[in-house]
Design a protein that fits this description.
Elements lengths: L1 H15 L8 E3 L6 E4 L8 E4 L11 H9 L4 E4 L9 E4 L2 H10 L1 H4 L6 H14 L4 H20 L11 E5 L3 H15 L1 E6 L10 E5 L6 H17 L7
Parallel strand pairs: 3-7
Antiparallel strand pairs: 1-2, 2-3, 4-5, 6-8, 7-8
């Protein structure tokens, strides 16, 4: 019975364009953001524009907001923020004690392995003394925004960081455009469909890093212009 229910639900997702297909990317050591597609006959490297695997790219907006408002709890990520894995909160001793005692997400989560903790510690210590990565990130973000704005590519107003959500507004078009970018232009973009976002707000989540070159930014912009025309995706007014 359950197999039939799951199969029916999967078919509904495929028809609506919300079914998630994962691309296996093999990082090319020392050449980020370049990667190769697993089991692909295409020998050209793919330019990756997604998060979770880079170092010290930005201040966590939750942390910044908490600092500004003097909120009692600050939470952050050790994945997007410092290029490892995991997350953290900082707070008063009483709040931390309450979380340890009552939060299921903490109680039933296995502790990070010592090697991961050591990597997080090394990243934090490095970023305490280096601002090169952040400064480069901010500069590249401004360049990418400029190219997108000049091309009429609609960056959603919710973006206040280096993550630029590009509005597509249709699940099927979003998925088809992502496939075209990968197959024709060797560009990997992370598409975000419902239920992660509301229906009608489907988007690409473009993550710039200091390692992306201006040439790659131009390539991405031109490729997006092409797929916008190809799939009749609205440009910004």
């Amino acid at each position: 019975m359950y197999s039939e229910i799951l199969s029916r639900k999967i078919m509904e997702l495929k028809k609506s364009g919300q079914y998630r297909e994962f691309v296996i990317l093999n990082r090319i050591r020392g050449q980020y953001p370049l990667a190769r597609i697993n089991n692909s006959n295409n020998e050209k490297p793919v330019v990756v524009w997604c998060s979770n695997d880079y170092l010290g790219m930005s201040q966590n907006p939750v942390v910044v907001e908490a600092m500004h408002r003097a909120i009692d709890i600050i939470q952050g990520t050790m994945a997007k923020g410092i290029g490892v894995i995991g997350g953290y909160i900082t707070a008063s001793a009483s709040i931390i004690d309450a979380v340890r005692s009552f939060a299921p997400g903490f109680i039933f989560t296995t502790s990070l392995p010592p090697a991961i903790v050591a990597a997080c510690y090394a990243s934090v210590e490095y970023l305490k003394t280096s601002s090169i990565e952040r400064e480069s990130l901010h500069k590249k973000t401004e360049i990418l925004r400029k190219y997108f704005n000049n091309a009429g590519i609609p960056t959603m107003h919710s973006s206040e960081t280096h993550i630029l959500p590009v509005l597509i507004g249709d699940a099927k078009k979003c998925k088809a455009a992502a496939r075209k970018l990968l197959d024709k232009h060797n560009i990997y973009l992370q598409l975000i469909n419902s239920p992660t976002v509301s229906v009608g707000t489907e988007r690409f989540r473009v993550n710039i890093t200091p390692n992306h070159s201006e040439e790659q930014i131009i390539q991405l912009t031109n490729a997006l212009i092409e797929v916008f025309f190809l799939f009749d995706i609205p440009f910004q007014g």
